[in-house]
Write a structure and sequence with these properties.
526 residues, alpha/beta, 5-stranded parallel beta sheet
Length: 526
């Protein structure tokens, strides 16, 4: 494949930003020869953080990292200077923060009586153990498009283990069994500590402030051009029998159609789809809207691309069933320390040291986490935040007469306070807390059941000058819904397009480590 001297990147999520870093760092491309086309007004894609102390902060999602699994992410962040301490890298900053604040959750599961359960008791019986081992031993092609629930008995789906595993990684019972198998192999080292989340690594601030902003600053310093407000909706291929050569991108800017033509020495890296497409915020008094008709156009490019040539995937598999791919998160902005102090006293965890607290009997399957303050840049010292989400949106709450999808921010807060058993402080907490719920129609779309042709390769067969990025490409053995997946895809794309003789860091599998495998086996057996 020809080495290129310039690049056009569509999207500015973590995969696209990583691709730009790799083009400069590893391929030696000058930053001024790289342009990034982004539909939104800000970079970062799903790694977002917005709001303020007065109107409420918002993070749509929460991410947890591990030392072992996120090798490509750490590789890239080792090259990016921290915003606060430019003499050290973002990777070093994250490492130092986690040496100070270790994760050791003491209240991973809470029951309907406000009791902290013994989450170290995974609840397995012999059949459950056999079913887990069978899943791990079954080839992906044999699993095919089977659901998770088709591989396990009802008892397994009620165990403490499954409650913790599914809420840690956001699995629904109808999601792909292949994706669950990949997760179990990739995160096998977490099995003995799933009840404490002791292997989790977090960033000091949210991922937008800690990861995206330093990467964008580094790219701008190298001359990379960001063109916001540019939605790429279609492509043009050159008429040639010699593979697929991209020659132009069709865009929308301020309601006007434009065409970006690629030069002979220019390659393109295209982000496909979006897990946060058509997300909508609610507020204290209004539930967020559920958008079903794909208004923001995040899937348009992939749909048009797939129609033009075979081997470019089937986007409708992932964006065609909102009922199976949606869930809702919420961010609390607390202008009083009262709720945070009560949660700390109840859980035994200072903010930032616990993991997800899951209310096992919640009809919404609600989970929350309290980050170490400040979690947002310039967050006042007297303001605290909490993030949570629910997997089950269409069941009535345990304490309010609304489904999660119907509930306003204050109604979600009331449901949470009752699950904690803190009714005595409800009025004070409601008076001093702003809640912003966020509905995301496609947030777990990457877990949808699929066949082996539904996700295209990073560099599709016959592609001459382009690669594909994001959560909807196929990287064998790796796990979607992780930052690592996007960065690994960027590495494959850049190294392949630029014909670099460099190795992508190997995929970590705990089962290949005898100590990890033995510890995990003991956890399954006992």
């Amino acid at each position: 494949m020809t080495a290129f001297s310039s690049a056009c990147i569509v999207g500015s999520g973590i995969g696209a930003l990583s691709a730009a870093v790799l083009l400069i760092r590893d391929a030696g491309m000058h930053g001024s020869r790289i342009r990034i086309l982004e539909e939104a007004a800000l970079p970062g894609g799903a790694l977002d953080a917005t709001g303020n102390a007065a109107q409420g902060y918002v993070t749509r999602g929460g991410r947890m990292f591990t030392d072992e699994t996120y090798t490509c992410l750490w590789n890239v962040l080792d090259s990016i200077p921290s915003l606060t301490t430019p003499s050290r890298s973002v990777r070093e900053e994250v490492r130092a923060f986690n040496l100070e604040l270790r994760s050791d959750a003491r209240a991973r599961l809470i029951d309907r009586h406000h009791r902290i359960l013994d989450a170290s008791d995974l609840g397995f019986d012999l059949q459950d153990r056999l079913e887990v081992m069978r899943l791990l031993a079954t080839p992906e092609r044999a699993l095919g498009a089977r659901r998770i629930a088709e591989c396990f008995s009802p008892h397994f789906l009620e165990t403490n283990f499954w409650t913790m595993w599914r809420t840690t990684f956001a699995f629904q019972n109808w999601h792909s069994a292949i994706e669950l198998k990949r997760y179990m192999l990739r995160f096998l080292q977490e099995l003995p500590r799933i009840h404490t989340l002791g292997g989790v690594r977090r960033t000091e601030l949210n991922q937008y402030d800690t990861i995206v902003r330093p990467m964008v600053r580094w790219l701008l310093a190298h001359g990379v051009q960001f063109e916001y407000g540019t939605r790429v909706v279609d492509v043009e291929f050159a008429e040639s029998g010699d593979g697929l050569k991209l020659q132009a991108l069709r865009c929308m800017r301020a309601g006007q159609t434009s065409v970006v033509r690629l030069s002979q020495d220019e390659c393109a890296l295209l982000t496909l789809g979006s897990m946060t497409a058509d997300s909508r915020n609610g507020n204290d008094h209004q539930a967020p809207e559920l958008v079903r008709d794909q208004r923001d156009g995040a899937w348009t490019l992939w749909k048009n691309l797939a129609r033009k040539a075979p081997g470019l995937g089937r986007p409708e598999v992932f964006c065609g069933n909102v009922e199976e791919t949606k869930w809702e998160s919420f961010t609390l902005t607390m202008r009083s320390a009262l709720l945070m102090q009560r949660i700390q006293a109840f859980s035994g965890n200072a903010p930032g040291t616990g993991g997800l607290m899951t209310f096992k009997d919640s009809s919404w399957l609600m989970s929350i986490v309290v980050p170490h303050p400040p979690h947002f840049d310039a967050q006042p010292g007297s303001v605290y935040t909490l993030w949570g989400y629910g997997l089950l949106l269409e069941t009535q709450g345990n304490f309010i007469n609304q489904t999660l999808a119907q509930a306003s921010g204050q109604e979600i807060l009331s449901e949470l306070i009752h699950h904690l058993g803190f009714e005595d402080i409800l009025d004070e907490v409601r008076r001093t807390t702003t809640v912003v719920p966020v509905m995301m129609p496609y947030i777990t779309s990457e877990f949808q059941r699929r066949t082996f042709t539904d996700r295209p390769s990073v560099i599709p067969p016959g592609a001459k000058n382009f690669a594909l990025l994001g959560q909807y490409v196929e990287i064998p053995d790796d796990v979607v819904f992780t930052v690592e997946y996007s960065v690994r895809g960027a590495m494959h794309g850049v190294y392949g397009l630029m014909d670099l003789k460099m190795d992508v860091p190997p995929i970590y599998h705990g089962i290949s480590d005898p100590k990890i495998a033995l510890a995990s086996l003991r956890t399954l057996v006992h």
